[in-house]
Amino acid sequence: MLADLSPLIAAATEWLTRAYPACGGPLASALCEAQARQAVTVAAWLRYPTPMDAALVAMAGPGGAGRLDMVVGSDMAGPDDGTVDDDAWRTWVDEAVVSWAASLLTDARLADLAVAALAEGEHVKVAPVAFGRLRSPDDSDRRAAALLRHPDLLAPVAALHHEELAGRLGQGRALVA
């Protein structure tokens, strides 16, 4: 049984959808979240491919959203008044996973390579998924996630760990250009 990455996936998805919100109403929000969740899931499964990797991040913690907030010029955390609030999820944000997800959302070829790489891993054996909204977004998906899939807007976040993702996918510097 694989260690549970769901808190990390939920937090990274939350961060992405707050930083790059949906364009439209409730349906657009749901479509945007589905795309973000698929990208984050692929990224998390690639970054933590074994039960040991997943258990280690669950034990040590992923690091939080502080640097990501600085990169996008946002203060999503709000004022630090020392009280426990609704932002505790932010401690479960994994910067590398968010960066990898941003790369996948803005590069269809990279997303295809990443999903193909998962076929060799343990996660898809437990939960096989096609990741259709990530790999083949339709017009509704694109409209809903216009900010989430905008390459210029996501470039600073994607650049944080892009070389590491390219290396993980066996592409080296070819995908970095």
What's the structural blueprint in terms of helices and strands?
Blueprint: H1 6-19, H2 26-47, H3 51-60, H4 66-72, H5 95-106, H6 108-118, H7 123-126, H8 132-135, H9 139-144, H10 151-159, H11 162-168
Helix pairs in contact: 1-2, 1-5, 2-5, 2-6, 5-6, 5-10
Range of helix content:
55-70%
Secondary structure category: mainly alpha
Beta-strand content: under 5%
Counting DSSP E segments of at least 2 residues, the number of strands comes to: 0
Main β-sheet, in a few words?
A: none
End-to-end separation in angstroms reads: 38 Å
The DSSP helix count reads: 11
SSE ordering: HHHHHHHHHHH
Low-pLDDT parts are: none
Backbone shape = globular
Output the radius of gyration.
Answer: 15 Å
The overall pLDDT, averaged over residues, is 88
Seen as an oligomer or otherwise, the chain set is: single chain
Concise structural overview:
This protein has eleven helices and no strands.
Q: What would your notes on this structure say?
A:
Helix content is 60%, strand content 0%. It has 177 residues and is mainly alpha-helical. The mean pLDDT is 88.
Give me some keywords for this one:
177 residues; mainly alpha
